[in-house]
Amino acid sequence: MDRRVLVRVDFNVPLAGEGDGIEVSDDGRMRAALPTIDYLRERGSRLILVSHLGRPKDREPELSMAPVSRRLADLTDASVQQADVVVGEGVEQAAADLAAGEILVLENSRYEPGETSNDPELARGLAQLAEVYVNDAFGAAHRAHATTEGVAHDLPAVAGFLLEREVSVLSALVQDPAHPLVVILGGAKVSDKIGVIERFLDLADAVLIGGAMCFSFFRAQGIPTGNSLVEEADIGQAAELLERAKESSCRLELPRDLVIADRFAADAERRELRGIEVPDGWMGLDVGPRTCEAYANEIEGAATIFWNGPMGAFELEPFAAGTRGVAEAVAAASGTTVVGGGDSAAALEQFGLASRVTHLSTGGGASLELLEGRSLPGVEALDDV
Predict the structure, then answer these.
(1) Phi and psi (nearest 5°) for 307?
(2) In a domain, 377, yes or no
(3) Cα separation of 217 and 110, whole Å?
(4) φ, ψ for residue 225, nearest 5 deg
(5) Of the residues 159, 174, 202, the one at which a domain ends
(6) pLDDT tens profile 135-193
(7) DSSP percent split of the chain into helix, strand, coil, nearest 5
């Protein structure tokens, strides 16, 4: 298979440092793409990798793909070249000059304004670089961008191993899950998860709510929330979900106790509430030990578990216990455990538990949209999915 293959990867990884000292601080997403990269290289393919990195407004040098290319060279035994642009004659020549097994990394795709607008001209420029297109960027598959959807119409387009596994594992959660099915949802906004909550109220045995989104459910019931983070627009949606849950066989569980603070800071005054009524001047920053124990018991007895979103401000150590407790329960569960991307993945990494779950998704927004039943443009455009 001595072909030039354009691979859309999700190398939108965190960076640390300044100037020439900028380095990749977490290469988890890069390592997740290695099976596809290695498979293609072992068969003599010449690889052109493309990814976005951050949300550049222009061509900010601190969002260049150069540190990513350097890290990729460390992760593989390949010759890795870094292009200084995304498309153009120079890149076409560099791609044509690749030897079997060599890799050319294009510059940040979002340096091109036509990326997010799915510009057909940019898509055609990308297609000029290769003979085959492989999408292995599940984390960007819910975006109809030039590198995820547009170019798939100009080349034979197939899924990489990572994207294929993501779609297979996540689809199984809603198509034929083993029961009991327990879903744990956290984070800040009900609006971000409403579609998933609605879907699982029809499918799951229990939905366990944590994070700041629980305060919208409390407010919907007239329970005081003090200075806790509440999205006012979410209160009505929370009320509707509570009513829907009454008609469902699925139990919608809310925290039974909370950890509160006088401000959002690691050195804030901290108290454990025996209940859930937050006094004026205080804010809830974590679920309490009773909630943690109850949720852990639900998780222990489940055959299938899906978790997306932290239970509290786990990035602040005094308020990490709830998220840590859920993470440990998920890691210890004997059932199938699937964890959504974003903060949940970061929490597992932080607690050293990432290797102890069945599947750790690389796509936060993409995984939620797939579970909601929405089509993913980057998947729909492929020839083999």
Answers:
(1) -130, 130
(2) no
(3) 38
(4) -120, 5
(5) 159
(6) 999 999 999 999 999 999 999 999 999 999 999 999 999 998 999 999 999 988 888 88
(7) 40, 15, 40
Tally of domains in the chain: 2
Distance set, CA 157 to CA 104, 125, 154, 206, 368 (Å): 19, 16, 8, 39, 24
Domain with 87, as residue range(s), is 4-159
Report whether pLDDT(1) > 70: no
Q: Tell me the two tokens of residue 121.
A: 């001209």
| Same-domain pairing of 238 and 124 | no
Report if residue 379 sits inside a domain: no
Domain check: are 118 and 267 in the same one? Answer: no
Give the three-class secondary structure for 144.
coil
Predicted local distance difference test score (pLDDT) of residue 20: 83
Three-state SS at 311? coil
Place of tokens 């994070």: 211
Kindly report the pTM of this predicted structure: 0.91
Residues classed as catalytic: 29, 189, 342, 365
pLDDT tens profile 328-356: 999 999 999 999 877 888 899 889 999 99
Query: In which residue are the tokens 């995304």 written?
Result: 86
